[in-house]
From TrEMBL:
Keyword Hydrolase: yes
Protein name, entry field: Uracil-DNA glycosylase
Enzyme Commission (EC) number: 3.2.2.27
Family the UniProt entry places it in: Belongs to the uracil-DNA glycosylase (UDG) superfamily. UNG family.
Coiled coil: none
């Protein structure tokens, strides 16, 4: 697989089917009266804002795809796009000060490693280049309200889309994601959706961040300890230092190990077992992290997340 060849198995994100964005912790909103014009107007504004954020995320993806395509078409290897050029959401580079992070020696070595992996062998890596920074490009730094930490991308063809636990529409739901939807149903009454595209969460301020942002096909953790952890630790530390009141959802031992990077005097940490089929019954089911997240946000007068897809 060529480093800069967009993977055909991962379609461009479709328009997300919108549901009402509530002003409380429940998934469904019922307008009690046809004359309640304030609620109707608020609902319309919420939908318009959500559509605007989705459009911005899709524009960032389009920019990345164009860069990848241009680099692929270039005759000279020196014209290939740099890893740092695929992080196009300016708030992460400016407000979160990650520009310098991508110029550090470890990041440059990581870029060389990825190029060798993608260009030098027959085994694909996931996600495709334009989606590597999809979590950051879909959730601006100034919008971050909550963080859901994953370990590394799904390693099956067409699954990884750069958002932790998320898969493109049309892809079978992995067991972990299905268990997340089951807990949402029990916690907030959200209907279990027919797809696993979590872009709607991302644009509302839920940073869906994996500790490692790439993986080799069918080999879990194959890109661990190559430099990604240092970069994503810097992302978490930047959020911890520069923001307040962010809710961190840490599922499983790997995610909970990141608690050391978070200032608990400024932020909220929710811990539970991992939602995988092997551990969901050991403390993930019943954790009620989704309603608790909304309660914590509302206590700070921050708009809650509409978790219904």
């Amino acid at each position: 697989m060529d480093f800069f060849k967009p993977a055909a198995a991962v379609p461009n994100p479709k328009r997300v089917k919108l549901s009402p964005s509530p002003d409380s912790a429940v998934c469904k909103t019922v307008v009690s009266s046809e004359d309640d014009t304030d609620n109707v107007n608020a609902h319309q504004k919420s939908r318009m804002e959500l559509n605007r954020l989705i459009a911005k995320a899709r524009l960032n993806l389009k920019i990345c795809t164009q860069k990848v395509t241009k680099a692929k078409e270039a005759e000279s290897e020196s014209d290939y796009v740099k890893l740092s050029e695929l992080l196009v959401e300016r708030t992460w580079l400016e407000e979160a000060a990650l520009t310098g992070e991508l110029q550090k020696p470890y990041a440059l070595n990581l870029c060389k490693f990825l190029k060798t992996e993608m260009c030098g062998g027959p085994i694909p890596i996931y996600p495709p280049p334009q989606l590597i920074f999809n979590a950051l490009n879909s959730t601006p730094f100034d919008n971050v309200k909550a963080v859901i930490l994953g370990q590394d991308p799904y390693h099956g063809p067409g699954q990884a889309m750069g958002l932790s636990f998320s898969v493109p529409e049309g892809v079978k739901l992995p067991s972990s994601l299905l268990n997340i939807f089951k807990e949402l149903n029990q916690d907030l009454g959200c209907e279990i959706p027919s797809h696993g595209n979590l872009l709607k969460w991302a644009v509302q301020g839920v940073l869906l961040l994996n500790a490692v942002l790439t993986v080799r096909k069918h080999v879990a953790n194959s890109h661990a300890k190559k430099g990604w952890e240092q970069f994503t630790d810097a992302v978490i530390q930047s959020i911890s230092q520069k923001k307040e009141g962010v809710v961190f959802l840490l599922w499983g031992n790997s995610a909970q190990a990141k608690a050391r990077l978070i200032d608990e005097s400024k932020h909220h940490i929710l811990k539970a077992a991992h939602p995988s089929g092997l551990s969901a019954n050991r403390g993930f089911f019943g954790c009620r992290h989704f309603s608790r997240t909304n309660q914590l946000l509302e206590q700070r007068s921050i708009a809650p997340i509409d978790w219904q897809l």
